Amino acid sequence: MGESGWRVLIGFTILGIAVFLATSILGYVYPQYWIVEQFFENVRNILSKTGLSLVLAIFLNNLRAAIIVFVGGALFIIPGLLFLGINGLLVGSTIKYAAEEFGTPLEKSILLIVPHGIIEIPAIALAFAFGARCFLKCRSLESAAKNILVAAITITTLLLIAAFVEVFITPRVAGFEPP
Questions:
Q1: Number of domains comprising the chain
Q2: Which residues of 33-71 are buried (b: 16+ CB within 10 A; e: fewer)?
Q3: Which of 17, 33, 72, 75 falls 20 to 30 Å from 127 in CA-CA distance?
Q4: Residues of the domain holding 84
Q5: What's the predicted TM-score (pTM) here?
């Protein structure tokens, strides 16, 4: 990958993280509880698991999100940004929901996100960046295949690490017993 390819990848990763963070703040300030309710409906099965089966379920859920955002980035860039924005809105709205419904302090919610989020959020933004780079730079089937292979290895590794952290480290950092 040339220098221009790296710049595109870094730039779109930063853009993806910025969109996610901005919409997280927006979701906290102007919460959308309908999206929180829909999210809990979709992840109810995941939340019933423990240990390694929970790691696998979280990993697969996040991998699905990464694939969607990659494809969204590869299809004219905007769909990938919209998906990142919706996920940010969900996170911000969920934090506000937890505060209002359960009295969860903002600091506690942040502790429930940061340990794995510092890996997971950039990984999903990077998936978007790989897709956007493919949209802008891939001019042959061979270059697209290389881009997809590097993306798959990189994103899969990061999301697997993030899932382990989410299950086995995040609860301890946030003061919860591990599952």
A1: 1
A2: eebbeebeeeeeeeeeeeeeebbebbbebbbebbebbbb
A3: 33
A4: 3-173
A5: 0.93
